[in-house]
Amino acid sequence: MGLLDLEAAARERWLRRRADPDPQESDASSRSNKYGPHLLTTVFDPAAFVEEAVKKLEQELPGKAVVACSGGVDSSVCAVLAAKAVGDRALSVFVDHGLIRKGERALVERMMSSFHANFKVVDASDEFLAALEGVIEPEQKRKIIGGKFIDVFEREAKPFGATHLVQGTIAPDWIESGGGLRDTIKSHHNVGGLPERMSLKLAEPLRDLYKDEVRKVARFLKLENAERQPFPGPGLAVRCLGELTEEKIEIVRESCAIVEEEIEAAAAAGKCELPWQYFAALLNVRSVGVQGDTRSYGWTVVVRSVGALDGMTAHWSKIPPEVLERISTRITNTMGKRVNRVVYDVTNKPPGTIEWE
Ligand code: XMP
Questions:
Q1: Residue 207 CB neighbours (<10 A)
Q2: Tens digit of pLDDT for each residue in 273-316?
Q3: C-alpha 200 – ligand 1 centre gap (Å)
């Protein structure tokens, strides 16, 4: 099956999902299965997918490969598939671009060591932050980040002798990145953000899957991060509107950690369901406030929490007011005069997107 067929298949499934958000509850016999055993079946079969993907990677990777590994569910599944297919001929590389979540690096190191995959951390934060200095336009940020990722992977590929890059692109990434007849909603760092000339050949085993299907594969592979909420490759850069500064990145990193802690605690206490995605973004807006007896002129943090099936559409979560109040109080107490306003985003996708940039 060619790339165009795969794209047509994924597109067709996406359109059908919009009409029928829970494909598993529908009549199996009404579905055709012309695209292969794991595609277009009513019940996605992770075991068949893994078998097929490993066989395909064995053929696609004649030599060595670098695996782009962010520690998220997509790239972790890729790392395991690549390790199954070519063993130590695959090297998983985690790039710390200075825009990752609080505690992320330690968590990814611990998780990757449990996969027993060949793994390396590269600290490229100075390089990424220097390239992003003064950049305010979201698409430009995404393109710079996509290009820098490739610089780092190509640099790591050389001494290892890799000819291929395995990355965890999934269907929504290329659908939203546009091309052909599709409008560019946003250039996902691993698709529209890629530089035009790359020396590494791409292998993308998850290209025609949606997030819920990737999670099924992750559960089948018994990965501990199977249920982890998504985090965009460009990281906090697309949660910090406007120009990035160290101070703003620190505010959004800490605010994201507070939102995660409070919503996870509320879900564990049965106050709400765990949403599909929940985080904070820092708006490029300052407003007047009062703290103690003095005036403040601080930044605005927006809390975003959504329910979704695959991220292609989403609805804002009905988080209990007392949970939102705790989040707001903790953020403003922690940030002092830097943040004096916290707002909650009540926009569905469409018309909004999940991330703010
Ligand atoms: P949006 O904001 O487009 O996001 O509604 C849909 C889902 O994709 C994630 N996202 C990204 N993931 N690279 C990624 O790996 C990206 O460039 C990117 N942009 C958005 C987002 O967090 C959400 O889960």
A1: 19
A2: 999 999 999 999 999 999 989 999 999 999 999 999 989 999 99
A3: 24
Give the atom of ligand 1 at the shortest distance from the alpha carbon of 234: 17
pLDDT tens by residue, 90-128 = 999 999 999 999 999 998 998 888 877 799 999 999 999
CA distances from 312 to 23, 44, 170 (A): 15, 18, 11
186 lines ligand 1 (CB under 6 A): yes
Query: Best mutation site among 354, 356, 357 for ligand 1, i.e. most ligand atoms within 8 A of its Cβ?
Result: 354
The pTM of the full predicted model, rounded to 2 decimals, is 0.86
Could you check whether the bond before residue 234 is cis, i.e. omega within 30 degrees of 0?
A: no
Residue whose CB lies within 8 A of the most ligand 1 atoms, among 186, 240, 260, 317, for a mutation test:
186
What is the residue-wise DSSP string for 226-244?
TTPPP--TTGGGGGB-SS-
